[in-house]
Design goal:
CATH class of the largest domain: Mainly Beta
Helix content: 10-25%
Number of strands: 25
CATH topology of the largest domain: Thrombin, subunit H
Largest sheet: 6 strands, mixed
Oligomer: single chain
Shape: elongated
Number of domains: 2
Strand order of the largest sheet: 1-3-5-10-7-8
Bound molecules: 4-(aminomethyl)benzoic acid
Number of helices: 5
């Protein structure tokens, strides 16, 4: 009987201890960590057990406190790390105040930073610029001169490393720019420092369904700062669709990327077998490497193109890449196919290429671009009446002292639509010399071949 009583008392104590734990847990849920005190549990016969239970609960409480503190400090840390660009004071930010920070940029925001305080010091600094909302992020520098590229640079992760006088001028839809800056002891030469600005810009637009073939085609991370013969060096990264075609080591023609697999070029450029042609994408300076290189799997020349006839209509070809082009929003992108209305008489189109700087002259290393005025079919036919037959399947440009030239063949003549994306309206085809007075540049009119392009690439989208 005594034994039974003892057993009943023991069970009651256990139940009470369990209840305590459950209560504790309930209170713990309510974040009342300190309420874990078990002072009221007085069970002399279970002294040891009670002490260990108390210790466990106290330790649990402590752990919980520590965790709570850790969470708080990490919250404080992230709070400290994040800065809203609109909270910056006027003027230039010192780059060293940006190190380790996440800077949030929203519509209408901008901030300028300078590295003056780090010039002449061996320092590196990383910070992240994050976009919030439907904007694009731009980074441009009004002053920029850094030293040797492996020691001193401004790097924007997955976009590029900028050094010497190669200043970043980028606009992309990337969610964030992770920026790394490095200076050296020798960097003091440029004491006035470098000055760059980050700003929210309009979202990049691209062609969609009605613009075959690629959704989001014609997006250029560079503004159309339009400025070959009579041209000027292009802005790196503007003509992301431009393809450099070479046979073995020699460049001879250009083309435009219209899907991740297809390049549009001129029929008269298809002078050797496909396997002898290499396409280079994301190229700017021919003495350097492009971003992507691929062989050509096959090409299709329009069946009505007459090889060897300079003024043949249908001077158009499609080249299929062996490997898909890695489309990205900075160095490689697709170009939209233009409609007839995209370029009318008097409109200005741009042609970019590595072609000769004058008729029979030398070729530049860096990509050149030139602005050219579209003339009417009638004016073109009139100007060429003694030399060539030009037709409405061609689109002619004429601006005195400016022209495309040998080596630019196959390159697109592009125009920016009012929505802001770029479309191809012509393919450089022929002309009498380059920039010869009264002799227009003649281009294949792309809108005429929209269905031919769609049928032959057998796809409606990228
Ligand atoms: C060519 O031979 C060529 N001026 C390209 C364009 C023009 C002339 C010649 C237009 O590739």
């Amino acid at each position: 009987m005594k034994l039974l009583l003892y057993y009943v008392v023991l069970m009651a104590i256990r139940a009470s201890a369990r209840q305590q734990t459950i209560n504790g847990a309930a209170e713990y849920k309510n974040n009342e960590v300190h309420s874990f005190s078990t002072n009221e549990t007085v069970v002399p016969t279970l002294g040891m057990r009670r002490i260990s239970l108390e210790r466990n609960l106290q330790n649990f409480g402590k752990r919980r406190e520590v965790r709570k503190l850790k969470i708080l400090s990490s919250v404080r840390k992230t709070e400290k790390k994040k800065i809203e660009a609109n909270s910056f004071s006027e003027g230039k930010q010192d780059i060293k105040d940006l190190c380790g920070k996440d800077i949030i940029v929203r519509e209408g925001d901008s901030f300028t930073f300078s590295d003056t305080s780090l010039r002449g010091r061996r320092k590196s600094c990383r910070f992240t610029v994050k976009r919030e909302g439907a904007i694009s992020l731009s980074l441009k520098c009004s002053k920029f001169e850094l030293g040797s590229c492996n020691k001193e640079y401004l790097q924007v992760r997955s976009i590029g490393t900028f050094c010497k006088k190669d200043a970043p001028t980028i606009t992309t839809d990337k969610q964030k720019y992770r920026i790394k800056y490095r200076s050296t002891k020798e960097s003091a030469k440029n004491k006035t420092g470098n000055v760059c600005t980050v700003f929210a810009s309009k979202p990049l637009v691209g062609g969609s369904g009605d613009r075959p073939l690629c959704h989001n085609c014609g997006r250029s991370p560079k503004e159309g700062d339009s400025r070959i013969v009579g041209g000027k060096p292009a802005q790196p990264g503007h003509f992301v669709w431009l393809v450099y075609l070479k046979i073995w080591l020699y460049s001879y023609c250009a083309g435009s990327l219209i899907t991740e697999k297809w390049i549009l070029s001129a029929g008269h450029c298809m002078i050797v077998e496909a396997r002898k042609i290499t396409a280079i994408l994301g190229l700017y300076d021919r003495t350097k490497e492009g971003v992507f290189e691929s062989g050509i799997d096959k090409y299709i020349v329009h069946k009505d193109y007459i090889p060897g006839k300079v003024d043949s209509e249908n001077d158009i070809a499609l080249l299929k890449l062996e490997k898909s082009a890695p489309l990205n929003d900075y160095r490689i992108g697709t170009l939209c196919i233009g409609d007839k209305e995209d370029a009318e008489t008097g409109d200005i189109v741009i042609i970019a290429g590595w072609g000769h700087l004058s008729s029979g002259g030398v070729s530049p290393n860096k990509l050149m671009e030139v602005n050219l005025k579209v003339i009417s079919d009638l004016e073109c036919a009139e100007k060429y009446k003694y030399q060539y037959n030009t037709t409405e399947k061609m689109i002619c440009t004429y601006t005195p002292e400016r022209d495309a030239c040998q080596g630019d063949s196959g390159a697109p003549a592009v125009i920016q639509t009012k929505e802001g994306y770029w479309v191809a309206v012509g393919i450089v085809s022929f002309g009498r010399g380059c920039a010869f007075i009264n002799y227009p540049g003649v281009n294949t009119r792309i809108s005429t071949y929209k269905n031919w392009i769609l049928d032959n690439t057998k796809q409606k989208e990228c």
